[in-house]
Amino acid sequence: MPKRNLRIVKRVRNVPVIGVCEQCNTQFFGDPTQGNAQSAIQGQFNAHKCEKKVAETSARA
Ligand SMILES: [Zn+2]
Question: Is residue 42 predicted with pLDDT exceeding 70?
Fold first, then answer.
């Protein structure tokens, strides 16, 4: 299983506010006013499960 990676895509005053999972593109949001945005995003990232992408062409009822 490939190792998933958290990428910070947006920062406010050097504080990460939006992170995205490079594996499944799920986004995680931190609150820059709380002072723990980094750990909040990291915590959401650690807790989420990557979902396999469903191919656009696959038949769905
Ligand atoms: Zn993921």
Answer: yes
Give me 5's structure tokens: 């990676």
Would you state the structure tokens that stand for residue 7, as one six-digit string? 């990428």
Average pLDDT, the chain: 86
47 SS3 class: helix
Distance 17 CA to ligand 1 centre (A): 17
**Burial, 28: exposed, middle or buried (Cβ in 10 Å; 0-12, 13-18, 19+)?**
buried
Give all strands (DSSP E) within 1-61, no chain letters.
6-12, 15-21, 27-29
For ligand 1, the distance from its centroid to the CA atom of residue 20, given in whole angstroms, is 8
pLDDT interval class at 61 (50, 70, 90) = low
